[in-house]
Amino acid sequence: VKDLVDNFMLVFRSLLLNSLFPELQSAIGLGSAFEGWSPCEEDVIYHVLVPMKPPRSHTFHLELWDAGETMARNFRIRVEQKCTCMRERLVGDVPCFLHHPEEEQRRNEKHSLLDTLCTGFYLDAQKTARWFHLLVRSAWVLLPQASSFRLKMLPCSRSCKFQLTRPDQKRIIIEILSGVQQGDSDIFVTSQSTEAIFTPSTMWPESYAVAEVKFFQHVAQQAPRDTFHLKCLQVCAHILVGIDISTYTLKTVVMHLLNTLPLGGWNRREVMMRLQDIMEYLCACLEEKRLNHFFFGNENMPEEIILPPALQMAEPHNIFQHLVHDPEAHAKALHEFNELKSR
Question: Where is the Mab-21-like HhH/H2TH-like domain positioned along the sequence (predicted)?
Answer without folding.
Answer: 244-301
